[in-house]
Amino acid sequence: MKTFVYIDHFKGEVQPASWEAIGLAKSFGTAVALVFGTGTDEVTKAAFEYGADEVIVVDDAALEDYRAEPYASTLSALASSSTPDLILFPTTARTRELAAMSAVDLSTGVLTDASKFEMNGEQLVATRPIYEGKVLEKTVCSGKPVMATIPARAFPKPERVAGKTGTLTKGEANPQGADALTTVQGYSASESAVNIGDAAVIVSGGRGVSNNPSLGLDEAATAQKGFEMLGELATLLGGAVGASRAAVDGGYITYAHQVGQTGKVVAPDLYIACGISGAIQHLVGMRNSKVIVAINKDADAPVFSQARYGVVGDLFAIVPALTEAMRKKMGK
Ligand SMILES: Cc1cc2nc3c(=O)[nH]c(=O)nc-3n(C[C@H](O)[C@H](O)[C@H](O)COP(=O)(O)OP(=O)(O)OC[C@H]3O[C@@H](n4cnc5c(N)ncnc54)[C@H](O)[C@@H]3O)c2cc1C
User: Fold this and answer.
1) Interval 17-34: pLDDT, tens
2) How far is the CA of 107 from the centre of ligand 1 (A)?
């Protein structure tokens, strides 16, 4: 099976799930990475090192900024001439748009957020969670090529092999798309630069982080100290800080950190929930984590039903002790 893998990047910063998509493509057969943009040498090199057999690079001023029209028409033209069986994308806001537009050009369909694939004869069957993960849906696409997006961390990331190379092909931007109606006028950094979706470890805090009367501070100041404490543990473990909606609504931390139904859906290797009760709207955002640790004063908190390890107690005593123990263990 020949699979195109669209490498989603912003100015050379690649969405890691692109590499996971290369690993998945290799498990089906040949992986052909598509790198669009300008100044793409580093991304191309990395695509080979993560296992692409071939990289098709379209380095063109018309593709300097991601814009749906030129990107979709370029992708559609490449897919029409090279006839892949499958086109994989890491799921992002951009790729949802790009895959959908290109699927219309190619008269095919898109299977979004597929977290598992299996073959049924010649047909690829994708499984994806729907209704906040309560139901698993199996979908097939009768068009060709099949297009699918995969969420971050649903598939293993292949090992990077330094210096690995393969076939490099130069593609052309589709001039039709170059007449795009949209133009990017500029970029500025935003709060949502925090990307908990890619973190392997998340230390997450809830309303409980604002509850430590012994500090003699008001809730907001207590929460600030509490989240600093969580941040220390997260940094030590090379991870990120997450939060419940109650913590976000309380103004203790920004929305970019929120996990759950109306926040981000995450699946890290380790999720440490501190002072979070475990409301269903929070659980749907983190229950696919590989190992869940819950720290809560209340032994009956629903979060314990999802946790591999539970600690009943005050997070203000347990988190620093855990940080200290980890520091010793890691020799830091
Ligand atoms: C439509 C809708 C969408 C929603 N979307 C989301 C979402 O995306 N994400 C989300 O998180 N929620 C979401 N919610 C809100 C959700 O229902 C809960 O209200 C919220 O998750 C509760 O946050 P919490 O667990 O931090 O707070 P609480 O439920 O108040 O729990 C605080 C916990 O901290 C413990 N605690 C207190 N002090 C300490 C301490 N010192 N040490 C240890 N433990 C302590 C308590 O025992 C308690 O279990 C949504 C709700 C609705 C209706």
Assistant:
1) 999 999 999 999 999 999
2) 45
